[in-house]
Amino acid sequence: MKYSRLTKEQFEELHKEFINFLATQQITASEWENLKVNKPELAETELDVFSDLIWEGVLNKAEYLEHISAKHMYLFYLGEENMQAIVINLKNDVDITTTEGYNWLRENLMDENVEFLQANKDYTEDKNLDKFKMIEQGAVITKGDLFKYFDKLIN
């Protein structure tokens, strides 16, 4: 398994897609029930393969990631050749994960306690695995509104 297995809730949301996946494997509903009981290791493999397929599709489409903590905002554009990062660091005791802290940041972008950094990072041989590792570390896929806003502001 390349990524991680989908959660029970995710499998429930993707129920129709999973049925279609099983159909492409020429596994009927009754055969699936039989697999789960008599060959659980094979059923587990099918769940893993389906999970990887879903992750691969999601990661192929992902263009922006964000990871926001109390003192740091990491914004990524996932380009074809590399990732572009914008990092906002706070050097004071403001917590930008709170409404008050986020509002403070919006109103004080040019304050001496706000530091902007930019960088590009090349992907390894496996671009999607790079993206997935960032998600595992807490990044979330977004539409990129924050990245675009700060990119315009500092460039």
Automatic annotation (TrEMBL):
It comes from the Bacteria. InterPro entries: DUF6495. Pfam families: DUF6495. This is Histidyl-tRNA synthetase. The lineage of its organism: Bacteria, Pseudomonadati, Bacteroidota, Flavobacteriia, Flavobacteriales.
